[in-house]
Design a protein that fits this description.
The protein is of the alpha+beta class.
Length: about 150
Amino acid sequence: MKRGISPLISSVLLIAFVIALFVMISSFVSQEAGDAIEGSKGKVAGIVECSTASLDIVSACGDTSSVTLTVDNDGDQFITGVTIRVVGEDNVAVENVGSLNVAPFARVLNAQNYDISASAVGAISSIEVIPEVESGTCSGVLERESSISAC
């Protein structure tokens, strides 16, 4: 006569196995979901900060070797830096201006002069200023000035 596990014990073992499997899977899923939420918080904060950041180029002039800019912060965010792109017929020159802490509705750059390599850029066609906030560069917020007078 063969003897096996009683149906009651096998049912208890099966239920215990299913519960242990459920606990392991739910623990893994909740940890992964928490990591994903933490990672997206920074992105959402950056999008919100950049959506309320805004610059205004008050004046811009340039010649063969430099540009002079006056830029205002007319948004709701503190500006921690700006990226200036001088677009010429031949090339683009980029200047990063960091270590700023400019309050909303204040002047960011006041007749600041920046040297450029005119031989690489050629005749200046436009100047672009991109704000940087605490969470990073707001590449979607771009202020462009196309009418550049001589300094």
